[in-house]
Predict the 3D structure of the following.
Amino acid sequence: MKLPNLNIGGLSAQIPIVQGGMAVRISTGRLAGAVAACGAVGVIGASGLAFDELTREIRLARELSGGMGLLGINIMFAAREFLGIVQTAVAEKIDLIFTGAGFSRDIFKIGRENNVPIVPIVSTGRLAAIAEKFGAAAVVVESGEAGGHLGTDRPLSDILPEVVQTVKIPIIAGGGIYDGAGMAEVFKMGASAAQIATRFVLTDECNAAPEYKHRYQTAKEEDIVLITSPVGMPGRAIKTAFVEKILKKQAPKPVGCDFCLKSCSLEYCIIKALINSQQGDIENGIVFSGANVAKIKDRSIKPARKIIEELVKEAEEANA
Ligand SMILES: Cc1cc2nc3c(=O)[nH]c(=O)nc-3n(C[C@H](O)[C@H](O)[C@H](O)COP(=O)(O)O)c2cc1C
């Protein structure tokens, strides 16, 4: 059976796959543009970017998309520059704004005034209902199997039915989906799209250093751990020397802090650790990853288009 289009707030993507936003500089314009060019939704991870850098990345993504699919940015509410990032994206006429790690009423007002659909990331039916009431165009339901900062430890199979029963807006389900069979399952449960991030790290267009992608290729199930983030949430990552230090509470304290977060425990500098790994200094960095990275059948690095073709084919076969 052919997969349905994804319709959000008057916009439509031909392929119901959202490439999850990945900071810092893991999903930039190149990946988002390549995903959108396939007719899916490409998302730039905007947390940690300067405003002019974000402008350049959105323009690059737009150019690479060839006018196909949809383009979004993902910004963490906990980021001090949250509003500036949102305004920059709005000025660039971004199609969608995804907001994680909390949200405020203000963001919906900005979305309404500028005709940009807002898509909050939620982890409970209760939060999904609040988002819908405030004016969300859709929600991403992100489960405990996801990579990066986590709002819950509940599996997708547990949260998704709760959200499906609670809201009428489109639901994008994410966390641990690594193949088309997993996509087909969430569609059966009532989702309108799948949000997938981990699988897109193993692409030519992902902006992480080769050493980062190599860690994804070699990670075993037991290498995936939960850390505490200075943001005040748990995070899922692949073990590195720096991650081991976090686990032992021996990570170095921040030096030269620029207060990038609204509130930070100052236990260690997460932005520096994420930038280190993105640039290839894995041992001094954090490599965020979803729980199922080791289950990906083929961990070779390919064009994003190949991965989307595989996912769609598998999902359609599983749905037949
Ligand atoms: C390397 C990496 C970085 C991420 N960064 C962000 C981020 O900046 N903001 C966000 O809301 N989610 C972030 N996530 C979560 C993803 O967008 C996505 O929702 C989730 O990882 C989906 O699960 P999967 O990776 O198993 O497909 C990140 C995930 C990964 C793997």
Q: What stands out?
A: The chain has two domains: 6-207+298-319, 210-294. The CA atoms of residues 125 and 242 lie 35 Å apart. The first strand starts at residue 6 and ends at 8.
